[in-house]
Amino acid sequence: MRNKAIKVLMVTLGLSTATMAQEKLYQHTFGLGDVKLLESPFLHAQNLNVETLLAYDVDRLLAPFLKEAGLEPKAPSFSNWIDLDGHVGGHYLSALAIHYASTGDERCKERMDYMLAELKRCQEKNGDGYLGGVPNGENLWKEVKKGNVGEVWKYWVPWYNLHKTYAGLRDAWLYGHNEEAKAMFIKLSDWGTDMVAGLSDEQMESMLANEFGGMNEVYADAYQITGDARYLITAKRFSHKQIFDSVSHRVDNLDNMHANTQVPKAVGYQRVAELTHEQDYMVAADFFWETVSQNRSLALGGNSRREHFPSEQDFLNYMEEREGPESCNTNNMLKLAGGLFRMKPDAKYMDFYERALYNHILSTQHPDHGGYVYFTSARPAHYRVYSKVNSAMWCCVGTGMENHGKYGEMIYTQDGDALYVNLFVASELNWKEKGIRLTQYTDFPASGNSTITIQDVKSNRIKMLIRYPSWVPAGKMKVTVGGKDYAKSFQPGSYIVVDRVWKKGDQLKIDMPMDLRVEELKHNPEYISIFRGPILMGSKVDHGDVTGLVADDHRWGHIAHGSLVSLFDTPALIGDRAALIGSLNQTRAIANQPLHFQVPSAFVDKRFGQLTLQPFYEIHDSRYMMYWLAMTGEEFNKLQAEKKEEERLKLVLDQRTVDAVKLGEQQPEVDHRFKELKSSKGNHQGQSWREAADGGYFSFELQTSAKKNLSLLVTYWGYESGNRDFDVLIDDQVIATEKLGGKWNQSKFFDLNYAIPNDVLQGKDIVTVKFVPKPGHRAGRVFRVRLVE
């Protein structure tokens, strides 16, 4: 039956996709080499990133692939994130290809070709098309092929890991023009298609509950490259119905889900839609983008806290967490926005793209040493930490390697004789097919002015479409050529059409006013962010330690572990909000510092001194304000009276905490080497939980930092019923027996403290905590466990 379905698809779709197979996979876009960045923060970031990439030890990145193929590595693997070994190698291959395409730097090509030669040795040694660095992957894939799909839970997201290898090979062909890479990609695609061909739909769905990256995306790419419908079938089998069936019916089921597990799935939905025009895939991709970008994202364009979406109503949680939006998420949201725009050139996609590109992606590279950021906390007066070359191997190091070579990707797009100007970035476009070369000179975002000059032109009649950003007020934008203003009949959130005959030397002038304005935190208007045009404005604040500013290779080095600051010890903006913005707009920029403005002292408590607003993407090595409490003095005093003691107790608990794990959330559990038997998880009152059934258990590791006199602080729900007697063990020694059923009968959370005997902790840096139900009972529900002093 499956072979018959393949034949039908090949007849109906194969011919059309064969004609679509082109050197570029992405319709309506220009090659990265056709768009040259000119002087701007983006050019600086791109050039710095090339030097950063070249500082990595490529043989250490190749080590996991050689090891898994039974070949002798030339250097040892990196110890950081060793259980995910191989994932950064795939990203690095993509990054080399991308930066070679965007800069023409031959050093990137030489490294790319060297990597491909070594990887080809591995693929040939494996003999079946497989190529990956997944630790002990040979045993895993044997079991998966036999139908034992539960084995993926014993590894650290193996399909996610392998997706980076697929993407690296694809990109080495797509951007690096290496035909050998294409052949290797197809061999790996054949291996994967064969791997899942015998799995039932139920087995696939069970396996896809484990994070798998963009496997559906790369199989859609394989289909476009070859026209072979087997790959389209495989792409669809990686669709994961739990998410697809919801978002394709415009239902948001993302509460408390691991964010970057979900976003790449939607990228894959978009790619399938782009190639097949199937409506359910189009709706799934577009609705996912809409709900995340419009309903689940912060001012900087990023989303998630502790790597998970909070409930759609709980944006206040962002103000409390040190682990804010993850840069990987935004990398993938930009892919999704760009893909949707290729299919339907709506200005809303580019409005989001611009916001996320400037305020999140650009901000995640250190402008001096080139390190990458993982979490960008939105908590007032917190900070970020940066990776170090040849040390950190985080997922956001991998996407960070790629990010800064793709700034030219969406500045311009085309459709027939139409040229879209999507972003206002200093650049030069060479549209070879039309014989047009133009430059865009701008100091944006220092000002809202840009001039596009036609340097050469052969196809004279070109329709140029200029984005009218949604942040420009109606009637305020001007687009002039030869004294004629083409913007008058257009509205924000659209494209201004300039349809004329062009000649060499013509200049199109763009003028966009960029006033300061306020955006409220969704559902919490007492918190505001400040923008100038599309640029998120922040402020440095001096609040002491920035522990681990440049991370070592510690497992959790990507988290800014420094002390949290009470919200009542951060600068609040007290007074009338309209008066504040009016005052700011009347303030001249600080001399010789474009986009730097002094916050009027009348609105800020004197203990914080003089504060300066500046683009958030410029703020590094410092605690900062991204969101501000903004209210009247009376409102602020009332809030302090109600919440100050609660805030103090939260900070005391945070200071006492040696280590903690949030049960039921993917990344915290992975980070703490979670194990289980017959356990389940869910969400209640916006909080995730885990429990174990009769005969099962769940366990995890906590770091003690070699401290004594510690206890476990466990969070439970106060209205549990039924048989819920269980033991709490540390390193297999029972330290407590709990009876939850009917214990409180109150609808609120309770924290219970279990003292740990010092002899259990003696000489240990790590302990294993285990919850085991009594016979006939369940263990839990457990929401959070802290190891506290």
From TrEMBL:
Residues 629-656 form a coiled coil. Residues 545-628 form the DUF4986 domain. Keywords: Coiled coil, Signal. Residues 653-788 form the Glycoside hydrolase GH146 substrate-binding domain. Residues 1-21 form the signal peptide. Residues 419-514 form the Non-reducing end beta-L-arabinofuranosidase-like GH127 middle domain. Residues 34-409 form the Non-reducing end beta-L-arabinofuranosidase-like GH127 catalytic domain. GO terms for biological process: carbohydrate metabolic process. PANTHER family: PROLINE-TRNA LIGASE (DUF1680) (PTHR31151). This is Uncharacterized protein. It comes from Sphingobacterium corticibacterium.
